[in-house]
Amino acid sequence: MSASAPLSVEVTRGAIVESRHLVHVVAVDGGGRIIRQWGDGEQAVFPRSAIKMIQALPLIETGAADAYGLTSMELALACASHSGEPKHVSTVTAWLERIGLDHTALECGSHWPTNEEATRGMAARGETPCALHNNCSGKHTSMLTHARHLKEDPKGYIGIGHGVQRRVAAAIGDLTGVNMAGIPVGIDGCAIPTFALPLRAFAHGLARMASGSGLSADRAEAAKRLLAAMGTHPDMVAGTGRFDTTFMAAIKGRITTKGGAEGVWAAALPDHGIGIALKSTDGTGRAGEIALIEALKTLDLLRPEEVDAIAPLARPTLRNRNGMAVGEIRPGAPAF
Amino acid sequence: MSASAPLSVEVTRGAIVESRHLVHVVAVDGGGRIIRQWGDGEQAVFPRSAIKMIQALPLIETGAADAYGLTSMELALACASHSGEPKHVSTVTAWLERIGLDHTALECGSHWPTNEEATRGMAARGETPCALHNNCSGKHTSMLTHARHLKEDPKGYIGIGHGVQRRVAAAIGDLTGVNMAGIPVGIDGCAIPTFALPLRAFAHGLARMASGSGLSADRAEAAKRLLAAMGTHPDMVAGTGRFDTTFMAAIKGRITTKGGAEGVWAAALPDHGIGIALKSTDGTGRAGEIALIEALKTLDLLRPEEVDAIAPLARPTLRNRNGMAVGEIRPGAPAF
């Protein structure tokens, strides 16, 4: 399918459009066929945290997940950018204990929880954050888990040459069909490598996660298990009030979505065998959320009752500090 | 001068540009002559909090500031979007007391301080926020001050028909040369009206604040006093670590800058009699900051030692949670 204009997203205030965004979106099937693209599907983007479900494949494929008896809640956290709420932190803490480690083994750095209530609760109790509160601590614990299972030195697991990152890169390369040698590499917010992928290739990887197309039976099963875990525990994937949690809860996990920094989003649709990847050109998350829903609706991938359930997310009302409605975020007029 | 392309701003990670922004910028002199514009100077934008120095003119012109013996620190707070740090809150509290009111008179709504340390400190002390912590509480106290001075009912001072907002709108109309009847009106985050102005007209208003051009002696003096107050107390205008505070402190207040929501920025340059207004198309503040400095540098409005002093702001390094440099924000290649 030929290229078209990116999706546009508008932020209004009163009668005028105050800000505008453009979002490149591509939807691909398991065979790699582009179903629809808006904008440039070939541009290289850092998938950031939106690729966590693919990064988690080695956790299952090495046998580590079963050896340590991981729950589906823990599998969801392996693919999460969590908000540092108490349930996230306690689950990661217990999991780390089971693999014989603690927060000092995590090399992701620390920050206060992104959930403001969680941060204020910690401050009220006189606590300070550690790496457990980092939104990526589930993914890092997942990485430590396969390092332990394979009896590798966990120290330095964030390095591009460590077995952990080599397995993760191999899974990304296999799923997306990208030759990982020589593509641009950046350092992610949590210190692991992030590989710039053509948006179409990223979407293809997601479609293969969703469909199992061209994957070994074991890998297809691992992908299915991870997507199911995320859909079953949307509260573990992001956090209270955040898009992925709210969206997946509203549609009962039938579609798996995962956002990343700088306006990247991923969606895997097992029922349709489709993957969708998108990137807002300016890096804003608010544009990515609206564009994802708009793409799903345009491609008729949501059921009528799901369209109703996610309506507040599709066109959110903006309110001021007094709760007055002052504008909205909405799909923009098509750009040609 | 004819139109040209907007300024571009790039966010890099490793070797690639991860996100891009476009910023419309216009620089105008006191007579309304466009010195330079990037992008569309005629588009109507909500100036949001970037126009607070103009909104504060009635505080002085009604005689209220002198009647209540306001300090230059309080005048700076009248023009501020403060971070809710203890010094901001205590200064507003004492000012409100002097006019015989307290926080219950503020109609701006409340939110936790934007300064995270201030928020955690409050949580640790078991405190909750009130309207004093709203970033606009200084402006609202300023509005209440002229209402009190003129013996108006302070109740409902945020309404477009109240004397307070009529004086504010008249000042904006006079300074910018815009006929305020019939232009688009929105509701700002703090519940007062915000009027959509052509970017060029907004810049002209700022140039007249800076130059006094075409203003009565009293108004020119009031404008001078407000700009001087902001330049003298940059810590009151925004807060620890924020752009306006850091920038004005670095250049010793010689240029007054003020950011607003959705990527709007204002600069008034008394030494040159110039005003600059800008709007990032996507509403991101990070783009506005870089574009403002790039415009000032391109127009040769910064002294060599000032260019050095603000270098960290002109091209900030992005660091991950471990403090590793992962990218930067920088002026982009010119778009034609």
Describe the protein's architecture and organization.
- The structure is a homodimer of 336-residue chains.
- Chain A has 336 residues and is an alpha+beta fold.
- Chain A has helices at residues 52-55, 57-61, 64-67, 72-78, 86-98, 116-124, 137-149, 163-176, 199-211, 217-232, 234-237, 243-250, 285-298, 304-309, 311-314; strands at 7-13, 16-29, 34-38, 44-45, 185-187, 193-195, 197-198, 256-260, 264-269, 274-280, 317-319, 325-331.
- In chain A, the strands form three sheets. In chain A, strands 1, 2, 3, 8, 9, 10, 11 and 12 form an eight-stranded antiparallel beta sheet that branches.
- In chain A, helix 4 packs across helix 10 (217-232).
- Chain A is globular and about 60 Å long.
- Chains A and B meet through strand 2, strand 4, helix 6 and strand 5 of A and strand 2, strand 4, helix 6 and strand 5 of B.
